[in-house]
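[audit] Reproducing an earlier prediction to check determinism. Same input, same settings, fresh worker. If the tokens differ from the archived copy the diff job will pick it up downstream; this log only records the rerun itself.
[audit] input (200 residues):
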Amino acid sequence: MERIFLLVLSSLGVSLVTADSLSPPVNVTIREVKANSAVVSWDIPEGDPVIGFAITQQKKDVRMLRFIQEVNTTTRSCALWDLEEETDYIVHVQSISMSGTSPLSEPLRFRTPKEAETQASKSEDEVTMEEVGQTTQLRAGELIIIVVVLIMWAGVIALFCRQYDIIKDNEPNNNKDKAKNSSECSTPEHPTGGLLRSKV
């Protein structure tokens, strides 16, 4: 693939041989417009023996233009770089064949945004993507916390039930033991135990 980049004055003109049988590119569009770059894309009519393309890029109301030419390629798009922010541009695309070039496509006009606008829209997109990632992480974290808390509560309840059963089982035995001890120490006359002393 061979690229040739030239910066020329339009008043000097660009001499290219035009092939009569070659149609100009169609559906020329601009996309991914940023403050300093953009991408121009196009379609080629069927049957045209195209081996490359040529693009002329010009600032509106300025006589200087940039000429981009690429041969031995079937690509249908090209990046425009080193643009100035808040500037109007006009772009033409031509097809290149072995016999010459096609007529110019219809002029395509576009305007680059401010650098701040590009950064703002980019940061909004990034924040949105970060929020999506954070939401997913937050949900996963919340689920983990909920599961851990439920397991802890289940453990506490199980421990409480076990201790309660032990306490409950020991409680009647303690009453029986107390009853046995008190009956062993007591006499029929004095159920609380001990002997009565007579006063002298």
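[audit] rerun output stored. Observation attached for the diff report: The CA atoms of residues 190 and 199 lie 17 Å apart.
[audit] end
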